[in-house]
Amino acid sequence: MNPGKMILLGLAVVLAACAGPDPAPAKPAVLEAITLSERQVRLSWPAAAHARAYEIERSTAGGAYEPLAQGAATAYVDSTVAADQRYSYRVRALNWGGASGWAESGAVITPPKPTPRAHLEGVFGTARSWPLVATHAVLLPDGTLMSWYSQDAIGNHRDNTDPIYHTGTRVDLWNPRTLEHRPANNSTTDLLCVGHVVLSDGRLFAAGGNLGGTNGSDHTNYYDPARGAWARGPDMAAGRWYPTLTLLPNEEVLITGGSDAQGKDNPAPEVLQRDGTLRLLSNARTDTWDLNHWYPWMFVTPTGRVFHAGSSNRLRFLEPAGQGAWGEGYPRDGKNRWYGSAVMYQAGKILVIGGGGPDATTTLLDVSADGEPGVRPGPSMRFGRTHFDATLLADGRVFVNGGNDGEKFSDEATVYDSEIWDPQSNAWAPGARASVPRNYHSTALLLPDGTVWTAGGGGCGEDCGVNHPNYEIYYPPYLFEPDGSGRYARRPSLTGAPRTLGYGQRFTLQSPDAPSIASVSLVALGAATHGFNMNQRFMKLTLEGKGSATLEVRAPASPNLAPPGFYLLFILDGRGVPSVGEIVRLE
Ligand SMILES: [Cu+2]
């Protein structure tokens, strides 16, 4: 007798009281699996028509499915999992008429066992392989993570100026809900060292690329997640290798810096306009002052201008309308912070971090108003770092990982310890220690589940010895019980959010945990490369009312505070524990 028949015979006994002719049961519409801790995975699915019971099976580490449980409920907590292991699940409905087809879950990786200091430092998961050295990484509005290096996975030809090596890019798309990778290759442009943002319509826009060495391509490219396809945009006036892209409040995109087809600084910013054409900011040349043309740190200010925060020692506002105009220049802190980083952690407030060969110092900038920028020293990190990553967390803290002494393609002097800056206390706290160096060409992104994906580093060809085609997930302190008991915290559940938020409008969120919710945050989807995340932005929203299962929240008042586009929305309880984020569009 086969196992399916045995199950049905067992059910026959259980269900004898309600026996009768059953139509075939419907397959459960979806199976959701979420990790509650290193020991528990919660499964849930909607009731299927004509189901009398459900049968659940589990696959461990990609192995065959094996029976796990049966029952009449539409949820199940699997408490037999191990830490830091990959699982997937499937469920089907049963009745007298037989069994439905299987509904499969996405795959989950259980988090690592917490350390006693996890609530203070967070924890890194085990390093797992990645198809390439992730030097560029963007979170797309459908929740997938796109990453690439160049035409190949590890940079064998990055310095070769033969055009044959610069006609396309090997691009990876990863779904964090299924852990599946699939190719999304570009066949026109070597996207190594482009700038990139997620547009307000959900497409990725990338400008520039590599022609070998420091020579920049004049290409622009769109990737449309809805169609799963790349398309060329208009060619720029000149090439750009290492440009920064900035999404503007009017949905245009500012393109600044980079080096041209001859490897010389490209001195004229351009703007992608809403009609898809480019406008040259011929009145805002950048070759007349000390702008470092490699990924300049540009930010939209609360007054709707753009601010240059570095990495050179020059602070300056840019008016991007018309042909553009730079304002007066101000010194920052006397340092050239090449390959450091800068984060706008709150509208108008910027944390400038490290860089310039190993430097542990920080500088705080305030550009809330248009006058002279506020400049004051911030607290120093425990470690000097260059070539590191700086990522805004769901609670507005800044997580810094990786970095070394500034040497490219070298893992000597690697800083493995992470650090976390809290804007409330203006202090750094020690973070967990990673197992893999993340230096030049590494990236990090906040994922919708509130963890941080860290990856990449190297990309110097077959023989260089410092390529890191792998990733580690960082579990921040807010995912653990604040009492130091070494347990994962119970997370508030966000069960309903509008897909779009209108500026200044009040909207309603659904949460069974509404009474315990203390704050709501928006974090723009990240787009990171070379130590600078040019799309991330954090905003705390005003919580205006609470019901037993609803929250009334006010959207940002102006596109100057948060440009139109895609954001992760989190609700956080009174202990600071965030929900899983929902991707919403601000318009
Ligand atoms: Cu590079």
Give a description of the structure.
It holds the Pfam family Glyoxal_oxid_N. Keywords: Signal. Residues 1-26 form the signal peptide. The chain folds into three domains: 3-109, Immunoglobulins (Immunoglobulin-like, Sandwich), CATH 2.60.40.10; 118-479, Methylamine Dehydrogenase, Chain H; 500-586, Immunoglobulin-like (Sandwich), CATH 2.60.40.10. With 587 residues, it is an all-beta fold. It has a seven-stranded mixed sheet with strand order 38-46-45-40-43-44-39, with no helix packed on it. The model is unreliable at 1-9 and 12-17 (pLDDT under 50). The protein is built from two helices and 46 strands. Copper (II) ion (CU) binds next to loops.
Number of domains: 3
Distinct small molecules bound, one entry per kind: copper (II) ion
Q: Major beta sheet, specifics?
A: 7 strands, mixed
CATH topology of the largest domain: Methylamine Dehydrogenase, Chain H
Structural class: mainly beta
Shape: globular
Strand order of the largest sheet: 38-46-45-40-43-44-39
CATH superfamily of the largest domain: Galactose oxidase/kelch, beta-propeller
Name the assembly state. Answer: single chain
CATH class of the largest domain: Mainly Beta
Helix share, percent? under 10%
- Treating each run of at least 4 consecutive H or I residues as one helix, how many helices? 2
Unreliable residue runs: 1-9, 12-17
Portion in beta strands: 35-45%
Q: Mean pLDDT, nearest integer? A: 95
The number of E-state strands comes to 46
What is the annotated CATH architecture of the largest domain? 7 Propeller
Radius of gyration: 25 Å
- Cα separation of the termini: 60 Å
Keywords: Signal
Protein name: Fibronectin type-III domain-containing protein
Organism: Calidithermus terrae
